[in-house]
Amino acid sequence: MLxxxxxxxxxxxxxxxxxxxxxxxxxxxxxxALKKATRDPQRDSLSAGIKKELRVLLEADDAFTAxxxxxxxxxxDAPDGKFRLLTWNVGYNDGSCRFEGLLLVQDKRRRVLYELxxxxxxxxNPSSAISAPDNWYGALYYTVIPVKNGGKVWYTLLGWKxxxxxxxxxxxxxxxxxxxxxQFGAPVFGEGKVRHAREVFGFNFETSxxxxxxxxxxxxxLDHLSPMKPEFAGQGAFMGPDLSYDAYTWQKDHWAFQRDxxxxxxxxxxxxxxxxxx
Length: 278
Prior knowledge:
By secondary structure, the protein is α+β, with helices and mostly antiparallel strands. It contains three helices and 13 strands, in the order H-H-H-E-E-E-E-E-E-E-E-E-E-E-E-E. A hairpin with a 4-residue loop joins strand 6 (152-162) and strand 7 (167-178).
């Protein structure tokens, strides 16, 4: 206990020396402690503390301009200044995850802070679900790609989603605003009359899947997943990259899928940072 208190004081003093608030330091300390926690009740308690401290930071007058780069968590800021989105996850001993998030939105002259509630277990068909922040298909987001059709803006989010002891997922999500109110999911993936509201890719937890924005060619590039055996097709726990690549490109009002792109065209100069582990 003494060692933990000493470390916490050191973080607070260092943050104050850099001009950061004690709330900022508390958030950093709680996030670091969450990574090291070994008991589920402890994780839940720490996550509640993280949410409390982040609320203070995001309700401050400088919330949109404050430097949050040293927070050890996932964060994406809309390039047009529309929102800041912070997400983190609570990994449990049974291999499952609960995701948490706070979304700060600039709605004309007012700011609104939304708490995201992970309802993954209740969302039985994520490819068609369009929902409010309190019915969220949780993930850690690491990239935001704004796309437009007329005056409508869809913010496409790329995310990582720990799922179970045997399966991990990547997500292509869409955040948009209807009358100033945020909603997750939009029918913009695929062709024809029936389009997906989001794309979810499940794969074996011992493998890794690349899902990234390739700015040079204006497309989302991803590993193509194949089953380890034909009879396991569609079962995420038995899927993995097969050394071929697919892509999505924005076509007027939807993300069009392209199978088996030429990997030699991929932008190898842009760094890609793997999302944090549980």
